[in-house]
Design goal:
Strand order of the largest sheet: 1-2
Bound molecules: zinc ion
Number of helices: 11
Order of helices and strands: HHHEEHHHHHHHH
Helix content: 55-70%
Strand content: under 5%
Structural class: mainly alpha
Oligomer: single chain
Number of strands: 2
């Protein structure tokens, strides 16, 4: 049995890193079959259990998928936004739960992404995306908190999708899954959900009207409002204009 040098990663990790580099560099492309376990053992001089461990690691990182049967084997995964989002969400949630990322940073990042994304959505949104955004509006009189939190996420993911930039969708989606929002909004003032509803409607109106600057402004007002509730110590001294400066249109009659 080989003696591992102190500080040096185990052999299965090194093998996994080599294969990961082959994949991310494009030398191994999506859908391509990897060499069989015996072939990898012969090429690397590593044991079968080490090769299997490396493949398990790559599978857990969604880089490789293994299928059984005559045509089975290990294949390079076809990348998908939803899979990457899940991976990012898990990593960010962990960093948030261990206080590596603070809520202030999260909101700052949301502002960096969402303000321009809302402007892009006003330029690029499709009819189907507008319709989906409409279904993400909630009714604060009848929906429970869980429904409203869920629709809140769906609304912002919908804006990111309507921006027409897949990277924006990929990077912003995980930000909606890491805050302990349920606990935070439990202490929010009674005006919180009605204001969030009004702000979402304002963003959606601007996006629907193709009003780029209006959509950016409305998105910024919304983030400022969230900041005031999530991080009361930093309650806005911003020159963006407080959410209350605007008179929001009432909800349409139901
Ligand atoms: Zn919102």
């Amino acid at each position: 049995m080989a003696v591992r040098q102190p500080g040096r990663p185990p052999a299965f990790q090194l093998l996994a890193e080599d294969i990961r580099t082959e994949i991310t560099s494009g030398r191994l492309h999506a859908g391509q079959r990897l060499p069989t376990e015996p072939e990898m053992c012969a090429r690397t001089g590593l044991s079968r259990s080490t090769v299997r461990e490396a493949l398990r690691l790559l599978t857990s990182q969604n880089l490789v998928v293994t299928t059984r049967g005559v045509a089975g084997g290990s294949f390079v995964t076809q990348p998908s936004i939803s899979q990457l989002t899940d991976t990012l969400s898990t990593g960010l949630a962990l960093m948030f739960s261990t206080s590596t990322i603070a809520i202030e940073q999260l909101l700052e990042m949301r502002e960096i992404l969402e303000v321009p994304a809302s402007g892009l959505a006003a330029q690029r949104r499709t009819a189907a995306q507008l319709a989906k955004l409409g279904t993400a509006l909630f009714d604060f009189d009848t929906d429970d908190v869980e429904d409203m939190l869920c629709k809140h996420r769906v609304f912002h993911s919908g804006i990111a999708a309507a921006s027409g930039n897949a990277l924006c969708e990929l990077l912003s989606h995980p930000l909606y899954h890491i805050a302990n929002e349920r606990a935070v909004v439990a202490t929010a003032p009674a005006s919180f959900w009605p204001r969030v509803d009004a702000e979402h409607r304002d963003i959606l109106h601007c996006v629907s009207d193709g009003d780029v600057l209006g959509a950016q402004r409305a998105a910024r007002v919304h983030i400022d409002h969230l900041r005031g509730v999530y991080v009361p110590d930093q309650a806005e001294c911003s020159d963006h204009g407080a959410a209350g400066d605007r008179s929001y249109g009432p909800r349409p009659a139901r």
